[in-house]
Design goal:
14 helices; binds zinc ion; single chain; 427 residues; globular; 13 strands; binds pyridoxal-5'-phosphate; alpha/beta; 4-stranded parallel beta sheet; 6-stranded mixed beta sheet
Length: 427
């Protein structure tokens, strides 16, 4: 079998824009940019360290505002080459920030309620943002195959990105996902493999594959390219603030699967403050889980720093990670910002999907139901202040999780005449 060449981990010549090095989140140990994800000193997770020292605040703001209506307007703040927007990719981002006044009335929010609707991305979930970063890292490190362990949405995002950018893709999912997710992952022509097990089994399998010759030359977007991948979630923070007129909202409610998105939105907000693009002000970050997979919520409520793994059992399959890699960091962010982590039952998830649809005309997948449901609960608990602004994330499209709202359908079936219409009580 031919072994593909991959740039060595000490190759400092890769051009990933302002990304300067990888730095350990636990001990701060720095290594050159490369396809590595764990610290050689302490096994802690690595993340990107940047050099933003050359930026002038007002020049940077003008450059962003003049940029394309997608995530690449923020290329100067991402681990990508400066000419990224000219390369073949699916250009995610710059999704709508919907002022949700009807939902606000229903929930009693007077300080301004917004839904950041990421169902508007090319493959209908927020995952296009993170995959776009991983693709650039894969190009820089010479990979030819893209892969991932996925709860569904990631597999579709990798398939589409690989198709456009000219990579082979081979992705892994639990075998029993929703049909909408399976079709979305398969349609782009890559290889899709169902694993007999849950996401945590899929993830373990992928870790084994990386260490084996069978996975040689493969870029796993959420494993060996994870430090790069994760940075894509910062674009949600940037967009929300820019769409609010360069202002940080008072409160944000974010769903948790591995917890990466939540922690990187916080990182994005901190960067905007340091760069002077927004005024420094306190904000609270709230995490949302389904009760049937609530390891972070349970740890939060019990006051623990460690997250005890669970065996997931919920309709919110895109969030069904029982052993979330970023769980402890989510606890840090929620506690540091004065937020919280909460969970809702599957029944509340379905109610929340319907509530959002009937008030705002937005059809969310189960993950969006989790977030809206948790928002409602946190307002009732008094943990979210309804007199202050709230941004709620809808991270995926309801068309992918139709089973969750099965039974929603025809009001009546009638014969094609007025009499029948009247009989049905519709006149
Ligand atoms: C993956 C995913 C998330 C959150 O992912 P993290 O692993 O926590 O970054 C949220 N919503 C949807 C719909 C997803 O697919
Ligand atoms: Zn370390």
């Amino acid at each position: 079998m031919a072994v593909q060449t991959v740039a060595s981990t000490t190759d400092s010549t890769v051009d990933l824009g302002p990304a300067a090095a990888l730095s350990c989140r636990e001990c701060g140990h720095r290594v050159p940019l490369g396809p590595v994800f764990a610290c050689e000193e302490c096994f802690g997770p690595l993340e990107i360290a940047y050099d933003f020292s050359a930026y002038d605040t007002e020049e940077l703001r003008k450059r962003i505002e003049a940029g394309p209506a997608n995530i690449w307007r923020y290329a100067p703040l991402l681990p990508v080459p400066a000419d990224v927007a000219t390369k073949p990719n699916i250009n995610p981002g710059w999704t709508k920030l919907v002022k949700a006044d009807n939902l606000a009335r229903e929930l009693g929010v007077t300080g301004g309620l917004y839904v950041k609707d990421d169902s508007g991305n090319p493959t209908h979930s927020f995952k296009d943002r993170v995959v776009a970063q991983a693709v650039e890292a894969a190009r820089a490190f010479g990979y030819t195959t893209l892969s991932c362990s996925s709860t569904g949405n990631l597999a579709g995002a990798v398939g589409a990105a690989a198709a456009r950018a000219g990579f082979r893709s081979c992705v892994f999912i639990p075998h029993d996902l929703e049909q909408g997710k399976v079709v979305m992952a398969a349609i782009y022509g890559g290889e899709l493999v169902g694993i007999e097990g849950n996401y945590d089994d899929v993830n373990r399998f992928c870790s084994e594959l990386i260490g084996d010759s069978a996975g040689e030359g493969w870029g796993f977007v959420n494993v060996n390219l994870r430090p790069y991948y994760a940075e894509g979630s910062k674009t949600l923070a940037y967009e929300i603030c820019e769409q609010l007129g360069w202002e940080i909202p008072d409160q944000l409610v974010i769903p948790i699967a591995s917890g990466s998105q939540l922690t990187k939105i916080d990182k994005g907000l901190q960067e905007l403050i340091k760069l002077g693009l927004v005024e420094d002000k306190p904000y609270k970050i709230f995490g949302a889980q389904a009760e049937g997979c609530s390891p972070v919520s349970v740890a939060y409520k019990e006051g623990h720093d460690v997250v005890r793994p669970q065996k997931p059992n919920t309709i919110a399959k895109s969030l069904a990670i029982g052993n979330p890699a970023d769980g402890p960091y989510v606890l840090d962010v929620a506690r540091r910002t004065g937020g919280a982590v909460e969970d809702v039952t599957d029944e509340q998830v379905v109610d929340a999907i319907k509530l959002l649809a009937r008030t705002e005309g937005i059809f969310a997948e189960t993950a969006g139901g989790v977030t809206v449901g948790v928002t409602k609960k946190l307002i009732e608990n008094g943990l979210i202040d309804p007199a202050k602004s709230v941004v709620v994330l809808n991270t995926g499209d309801g068309l992918k999780t139709l089973d969750a709202v099965a039974g929603t359908g025809l009001t009546a079936t009638i014969r094609p005449n007025l009499e029948s219409f009247r009989e049905a009580g519709l006149a």
